[in-house]
Amino acid sequence: DELTELRRKLHREPELSWEEFKTTQFICEYLDGLGISYRRTEPTGVIAEIAGGNPGRTVALRGDMDALQVEELNKDL
């Protein structure tokens, strides 16, 4: 599954807060591949918008990209 592989890739290269430069670049390239427009916010933020085809409510999603300094015990992630 594509999303599972995406999560695994991001988990293999964790970056701490305000140092997510590789993660930010990866996300921008992924969005480019999907044809989704976005804008970068400094230093490591990304805001993307996927517009629906009909008027109505808007759904907003937010996700953190930074990692915590912990040892991953589950090698299946």
TrEMBL record:
Gene3D superfamilies for this protein: Zn peptidases (3.40.630.10)
Coiled-coil regions listed: none
Top-rank taxon, per record: Bacteria
Gene Ontology terms for molecular function: hydrolase activity
SUPFAM superfamilies given in the database record: Zn-dependent exopeptidases
InterPro entries for this protein: Amidohydrolase (IPR017439)
Residue ranges of the TM segments: none
PANTHER family found in the cross-reference section: METALLOPEPTIDASE, PUTATIVE (AFU_ORTHOLOGUE AFUA_6G09600)-RELATED, PEPTIDASE M20 FAMILY MEMBER
Protein name according to UniProt: Peptidase M20
Species name: Shouchella clausii (Alkalihalobacillus clausii)
